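Hello, quick one for you while I still have it in my head. My current little project is about how a certain protein chain folds up. You're getting the sequence in one-letter code plus the fold written as tokens. Would you mind checking whether the tokens look sensible for this chain? Here's the protein in full, and shout if anything looks odd to you:
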Amino acid sequence: MRFILTGGEKSDYTQALFLLKGKKADAVLGDKGYDADYIAEAISAMDAQVVIPPRSNRKTPREFDSYLYKERNAI
């Protein structure tokens, strides 16, 4: 397990790539705040499923497993 504490004014997604580096997973779950192409590409490069709902302003919405997404808060 890995975690990074950031200031309250700093967005969590800025640390996503560091948290994923060197990890293996079947799927990576995150909320809409993590919907960025570079994060999805890093997850795909791990051969993991991207389970992040697309933001409403995304021109080409990405599909995701909504049932698995509901488990994102479980550890």
